[in-house]
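Summary for the steering committee. The consortium agreed at its last meeting that each partner would contribute one worked example illustrating the joint modelling workflow. Our contribution is presented below. We chose a case with several input lines so that the handling of multiple components could be demonstrated. No manual editing was applied between input and output; the record is shown as generated.
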Amino acid sequence: MRAELETLKSEALQALEHVQNSKQLAEWRSRFLGKRGALTQLMRRMGQVPPEERPAVGRLANEIKQALEAAYAERAEAIRRAELEETLQRDAVDVTLPGRPPAMGRLHPSTRTLREIERIFADLGFQVYRARDVELDEYNFQLLNIPPHHPARDMQDTFYVDDGGDSESRTVLLRTHTSPGQIHAMREFAAMNPDDPPPVRIILPGMCYRHEQITARSEIQFHQVEGLAVGRRITMADLKGTIEYFVRRMFGPERQLRFRASHFPFTEPSAEVDMDCMLCQGKGCRVCKYTGWLEIMGCGMVHPNVLRNGGYDPERYTGFAFGMGPERIAMLKYGIEDIRYFWQNDLRFLEQF
Ligand code: PHE
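What follows is the complete predicted structure of the assembly.
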């Protein structure tokens, strides 16, 4: 019996050395230490041992059991570690790998530019006034001193929505400029106090539409920002000062301006504003077409007929107006060479802003 116990012990310990994983470990345990394991089987035969030897054999059996339990525990721990190590290796996460940044939303360059323009004029006390995109011929043209057959209409080929039956005034169209908003705004302001209308100081940003050939320089839709100031004793000096302030904040304090006589039916006198080219500092380059100057907006003193149409008596009130294209402003500011980029939704372009 002693010899058998010793043999069992060495057999078990030897077998344990070959145990590689928890499955084999469990097998080993039931084989040697389980309820029907080899040791239990041996112990069952204790009755065959002469009584005087039983205590010693029993002690030996217990020692062997403890030794095997201890060896088992040690092996189990080693296997647990090895298996943990293996899982860690296999499922390793490289924490030093740079993460994937979420794609960041951006404002469209037109929106950015519009907001910048609005900010600058807000600092001068101009309110934002929103007018409609779909207009009547009456507002888009007639009330702005552009009669039905005025040649100025040729410049603004129009998208018509409805021919208005036999009334030219009722013809519905997409506005070709933001200037009809001048009439809506003045009428709304004048209605507050028709005998003594309040002063107006607003900008009107919005989309405009022209039925034109799309080229690098012209789109069928584009934004404009209209400006309008009406009050007593407003002069062309106010217009010049306002525009100069705007341009120097938008393009830098060193910018020089030139007011060139021009014509718009709704302003008198009218001018176009040129700014010295900020790319070549007026020396002449491709962007300014070697003139040193960039045209940035149209402007003028509000025509008496337009004031009257807005409910302001031209004998008592004067005003100035201007209109600029934020896409053009953005093109100059960011060196964008083709206006078609704005509505093509090409992320390679949009992501640069
Ligand atoms: N409405 C003119 C245009 O579309 C711009 C302008 C606005 C000119 C206000 C003078 C005054 O070209």
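The CA atoms of residues 33 and 40 lie 7 Å apart. The longest helix spans residues 54-90.
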